[in-house]
Each structure stands twice: as C-alpha cells, then as structure tokens.
Amino acid sequence: SLILEWNSLGMWEEDFFLFCQGLAANSVLQRLDLRSNEISHQGAEELAMALKKNTTLQELDLRWNNIGLLGGRALLNCLHSNKTLQRLELAGNNVPSDVLKAIELTMTYNQDRQAILSESQNRAHVLSEEVLRLKDEKTKQFLDLMDTIDKQKEERAKSDRMATGRVRKLQEALDEQHSMVNSLKAKLQMTEAALALSEQKVHDLGELLNAAKRDQTRMAECHFKELQQQKKEIVDREGKLLRDLSAASEKNLLLKNQVDELERKCKVQQDQLFQVKQDLTNRTAELKLQAVQAEEHQEMEKKRFKQRLEDMESLRVKEVDCMRQHLETSERSMQDRIQRLEAIRVALEEELSQVKAAALAECSRAQEELIEVRNQARLEEQQRREHLEEKLQQMTESLKKAQNCYFEQNQTFAEAKAAAAQLRLHADGLERQLEELQQNLKSKEEEKVTEVTKVKVELQAERTAQAGLREKIAALEREMKALSSNHREALLDKEGEISMLVEKLRRKDAEISRMREEEAQRASFLQNAIMTYVQGCSLQAPSSSK
Description:
LRR_dom_sf; Centro_Cilium_Assembly; 4-stranded parallel sheet; mainly alpha; Leucine-rich repeat, LRR (right-handed beta-alpha superhelix); cytoskeleton; cytoplasm
C-alpha cells in the first residue's frame, strides 16, 4: 500500500513518467492512492501504459485530478488488457458519465474474474489433495495385499506339512466340501452379476460424457455463429458510414461548385466594372473633343459674327458651367458605385474563404472520427476473440481433465476385471487340486477358508472402489454443473458487451445526424447569402442600365 495524496506529482511530467515506469515494473504493490495530485490527461495516458504492464495492482484512487475525457478513454482502453485491477476511483475529474459506467462495468468484470480464479484454484487444490489421498490409500491396500499373500504362503507350507497325517480324516468331509464349493460358485456368479451392473453404469456414464461433449461443441458453434453475425453487423455499419461520407463529399462538391459559380459571378462583375470605367473614359474623351470642337467653331464664328458672340457669350458660359457641374456629379456617382462594388467583392471573397476553410475542417474531422471508430471496432473485435479463445482453451482443458479421469476409472475397472479373472482361474485350480489331492482334504479346507476370507476382502475392496467411483462420478457431475454455470455467466457477460456496443453505435449515429443537421444549416446559410447577393446584383443591374 502506497499513499501519495496532496503532492502535486502531475506538475512534473518527466518525473511522473519515471514514476509510471517504476509502477509498470513493480510486482508487489496492491493499493495506490494519488488523490489531488494535479494529474492531467497526459499523465493519465502514461498511467494507462503502466497499468497495461502491471499485474499486481488491485486498487487505484485518482479522485480530484484533471484527467478529463482523453484520460478517461485512455484508462478505459488499458482496462481491456489489465485483468487484476478491481477498484478505480475517478470522482472530480470531469470524466463523462458513459466512460465512468464503462469503467465500472470493467471493474465488476475483473472482480468476478478474480473470484472465479480463486474458486478454481481452491478446487484444483482440493482435487490434488484428494488425488494424493487416493494414491496413499491404494499404496496401503497394495502393501496389505502383499502381506496377506506372504502369510497365506506360510500357512500353505504349514498345511502341506500337516496334510500327510490328516488324509484319512478328510475323506469323510468331501461331500461337505463339495457343497461349500457350490456355494462359492453361487457367490462368484453374484459377483459377476455385480460386475456386469457396474459395467452398465460405466457405459451410461460414458454416454453422459459424450452427450456433454456434444452440448459443448454445439455451444461452441453457436458462439462462432454469433461472432460471425457480429462481424457482419460491423461490416454493414462501416458501409453505412462510408455511404454517409460519400454523401458528405457530394455535398462538399456541390458547395465547391456553388463557390466556383460565385467566383465566376465576381469575375463577371469585375468585367462589368472595367467596361463601365472604359465607358466613362470614352465619354470624358468625347466630351473633351466636343468641347474643343465647340471652341473652334466659336472662334470661327467670332470672326464672322462678332455681334452675336457678345450676346451669346453669357449664355455659352452658363451652359459650360452646367455641363461641368453635370459631369462632376456623374463622375462622383460612378466613383461611389465603384467603391461599393469593390467592398461587396472583398466581402464575398472573405465569405468564400471562410466557407472553404469550414468545409475542409469538417471533412478532416469526419475522416478522423471514422478512423477512430474503425480502430475502436478492430480493437474490440480482437479483445473479444482473445477472450473467447481463452474460454475455449479453459473448456478444452476441463474436457481433457474429465477424459483423463474417465480413462483412469476405465483402467481401475479393467484392473478389477483382471483381478476377477485371476480369482476365477484360481478357483478352477483349487477345484482341480481338490480332485487330484483327495488325501489333503484338511489342508484344502484351510486353504478354502483362507480363500473365502480373501474373496470377502476383495469384495469389500471392490465395494469401496465402487463407492469411490460413485463419489468421483458425483464430483464430475458437480464440475459439469459448475462449468454450465460459468458458461451461462460468460453468455451474460457477452450480452452486456453487446448492449454496450449497441449504445456506442447509437451515440455514433446521433453524432452523425447532428453533423448532418449542422451541414444542412450551413448550406441553408450559404444559400441565403447567395440569394441576397444575387438579389443585390439584380437590383444594381437595372439601376446601372438606367
């Protein structure tokens, strides 16, 4: 446990980077408190890189820092690879609620995973202890059997020594021994029937195991089909996004065409202004020529009509003044119009440049968002594949363990069968010895008594072995139930992940619709501006023609 609250570690980026490297290399620390340390989104990204490599940290407190949206996403991405962190506090960091919910879901998943791992470890420990105990019991039973065999051999040697003196007494008890042999045969038949029943039970257990294997294969196929369906849905969504991009590009092309039309109109207006200026220069030149011609004509008429000139001089001076005033007013009005047209042209050029910049920025932003969405989808698919592969490996390992247990049981059953066959052979050999050695009846009786006791011991051992097999079968059934419950929990986890993906896609669709609305609004604003400009140009055109 390490508590470092109220130390402002995030202000020194290089030192905090070294601290994150040490945390990534650490393999002992389980709890870390970094409250109120002014950690930015960059520091959060470095912490996320460290958490990807750390495998022992269980609790991390990052309350009251400056992590923000980017830092929260970085921490959420690192939790896909970190499976040991069980608690992460992010209050007071301006992290959105959807990111916090996703982090909480991953924390609950990690907690459940740790609980399942601890339970599996405990079960494995208990099973290993049971296996060791069974091995000890089997070794003890084998040693006991060897001791009994040695004792029986010694007793047989003694009975052979004593047999020569008791042959005559054993002839009368032959009938009784035959009856005992018949009873032993009946008992052997009973044991054979019990063995047949046990074989039938083992066969039934094998069928149950085969049914369980078929169910597991069917479930694996269902999972594979679900994965293929998810892939198809993701491909369809990517197609939709590409179609939306194509529509946006078409809109941008339309806007570019409109901008080109506006530029053409501006050029046409500039040409009109140039023609107006040329017309003004031509008119001023013509007026000047007319004035010169009038002056020459007046000079000629002065010589001819001196009397009329004196009367007309006042009138001519007044007319010239009027003409000059009219020319000055017309020149001023034309210059004002030229200045207004130039100001309108400059404003239109600025608007065109702004529209081009906005369109380029929107295109770049849409492309970046598409790239991010694709990368996130690919990462989520890879993580899901890895998770499912791990689960399939665990299932195959459990199946292999069950098969090994089943093979071990079959081996024990075969050993029991071999022991029964040996017992039958031994009984046949005893009968032959009884027929051949009628004189050694008393020794045979003692041997039969010892054989009966040995058969009883073996029957008891077989019963205990059957009880052990029943217990193992019950344990296997419990393990199958646990595996089915784990499988159901995994299915629930997958359904939760699918719901999360659906929510993310819904949010992306909402963002795309919002972008479309904004583009429509901008297009409407551009259309209004173009219409007002066209109306102004149409109003100015008739006034210039007048």
